[in-house]
Amino acid sequence: MKSSHTSLICILMLSLVALHQCVRMKVKEIGRSNKIYIPPCFHDSCDHVLKKDCYCCGSKPDLCWEDQHYCNTHCPPLKPLIN
């Protein structure tokens, strides 16, 4: 019984410390942290006989290349879902 009280108090103290750190964050830091980077290309299996793996554009799935770096530089950018 005593060990369960001790562990509960430790969890409560750790939660309070984490909550205190969240309160101290500036609004600018919170706004910046919700951005997610989505690369323009995704890995896929090709229908080509010689190439098994390729990278295709997210905006135009019919455009596929063997090299990921080439795909990322030549693929049209994705349209944002939310303005």
From TrEMBL:
GO BP term, pick one: suspensor development
Domain Embryo surrounding factor 1 brassicaceae: 34-77
Matches recorded under InterPro entries: ESF1_brassicaceae
Domain of life: Eukaryota
Keyword Signal attached: yes
Annotated signal peptide: 1-22
Listed Pfam families: ESF1 (PF18209)
Keywords, alphabetical: Disulfide bond, Signal
Protein family per UniProt: Belongs to the MEG family.
Name the record gives this protein: Embryo surrounding factor 1 brassicaceae domain-containing protein
UniProt source species: Arabidopsis suecica (Swedish thale-cress)
Organism lineage string: Eukaryota, Viridiplantae, Streptophyta, Embryophyta, Tracheophyta
